[in-house]
Specification:
- The protein is 41% helix and 22% strand.
- The protein is α+β, with helices and mostly antiparallel strands.
- β12 (357-361) and β13 (367-374) form a beta hairpin.
- Residues 382-388 have low confidence and may be disordered.
């Protein structure tokens, strides 16, 4: 038995199939459209496909710089569809099944507006990336120059600080040798204190330059468990001549419950020297610098908190984080001086111990620098208070 032959598609079925196509389709005779599908009508911005019948190709398409289909080229060509009262769509028009010979045949129109927009965005992004790379190269060059300038500055600082320190220490040793006359007990005591201060200063200069050149990294700490009072009093003693000259008092407020702490003594002296030196720099003549301590339970651990406060102009709230960054100075007027390294070094040292540092406003005006150190194992009180 012969199988039934399927019915051939009717014209209306074929038209529905062509209208459902996403691309625009048209039949062209003598350069004019004789049939178009619904998709081409939609792309062209007309109500129905019949509105395109009789329209010439050079009326439907606008040259986008590559010519017009069937006029300047018989192959695929990028152009734009003319749309009344609206911006034309970017399309690619190409003949179906061969050339659009003598402007007769079938034409396929693909919408590439989004692709064109994407290409433009890629080009724009490429140019922006190129500009960003150029700026990055410039920033790297500037950072390189600044690093070289800082290295040169550190070399100068090293020479300018160490040279007078070496001279002072040399003359001091000569006096201590008593080659130029005998010394009294008080004279010898003063000269020995000068010698200790020179040694401390030379050590601090070395540490400062070392940490500055190594991105402020803090080397290995030689941590001991000890009371804080002797260290605090010792560092204050270094500033005694300056304190007397400026008529500034130091007021201690050491809570007896402050625990013994775990710290590297020379590093702690470095922190205290920077903080007390800053307080002395900004405190008004005749005022007082307050040094306080207390126990601070925090996060399930016990810390010793140390505060150095002065009655100076204080630190603007917007600068209270920045001043702990390298090479940042926020002090008012020329008295600020320095390289802007002291507080950055303090933060590195305190954090290397497992503590933290901040600056608050002092009650009554001024600055209050506060830092913490981990308490000694099993510490429960200010063991150094009795030794003061």
């Amino acid at each position: 038995m012969q199988a039934p032959i399927a019915d051939e598609p009717r014209d209306d079925e074929l038209r529905q199939l062509l209208d459902a196509a996403s691309d625009g389709l048209a039949l062209v005779r003598e350069g004019e459209i004789v049939w178009a599908n619904a998709s081409l009508a939609r792309l062209a911005g007309v109500a129905e496909a019949k509105d395109l019948i009789g329209m010439a190709l050079d009326e439907l398409f606008v040259d986008a710089g590559y010519g017009l289909p069937g006029v300047d080229a018989d192959g695929p060509i990028r152009c734009r569809l003319a749309r009344a009262g609206a911006e034309g769509r970017s399309v690619v028009a190409e003949p179906v099944g061969g050339l659009l010979a003598l402007r007769n045949g079938a034409l396929r129109v693909r919408d590439v507006t989004d692709l064109h927009t994407l290409e433009s965005e890629v080009l724009r992004t490429g140019r922006a990336l190129h500009d960003a790379n150029r700026e990055l190269v410039a920033l790297r060059e500037r950072a390189k120059r600044e690093a070289a300038e800082r290295e040169e500055l550190l070399t100068v600082v090293s020479h300018e600080l160490r040279t007078p320190c070496t001279v002072i220490a040399g003359f001091n040793r000569m006096l201590l040798s008593e080659k130029f006359g005998p010394l009294g007990d008080r004279q010898r005591h003063f000269l020995e204190e000068i010698q200790k201060s020179c040694q401390r200063l030379n050590s601090f200069i070395g540490n400062l330059l070392e940490t500055a050149r190594e991105s402020f990294s803090v080397g290995p700490l030689e941590v001991a468990e000890a009371p804080l009072a002797p260290v605090l009093e010792s560092v204050v003693g270094l500033f005694e001549p300056l304190l007397r000259e400026r008529r500034i008092q130091v007021e201690f407020a050491l809570d007896p419950a402050t625990p013994r702490a775990r710290f590297d003594p020379p590093r702690l002296e470095q922190v205290l020297t920077n903080l007390i030196g800053n307080a002395l720099k900004f405190a008004p003549s005749g005022s007082a610098i307050e040094i306080a301590s207390r126990p601070l339970p925090q996060g399930g651990r016990l810390f010793a908190e140390i505060a150095v406060a002065d009655a100076g102009p204080g630190v603007d709230p917007g600068d209270r984080q920045r001043i702990f960054e390298p090479y940042v100075q926020a002090g008012p007027g020329p008295r600020a001086g320095g390289l802007g390294l002291g507080l950055a070094i303090c933060r590195r040292i305190v954090e290397a111990h497992g503590g933290s540092i901040r600056v608050d406003e002092r009650r009554g005006g001024g600055s209050r620098f506060v830092f913490t150190l981990p308490a000694a194992e099993g510490a429960s009180g200010f063991a150094g208070a009795a030794e003061r």
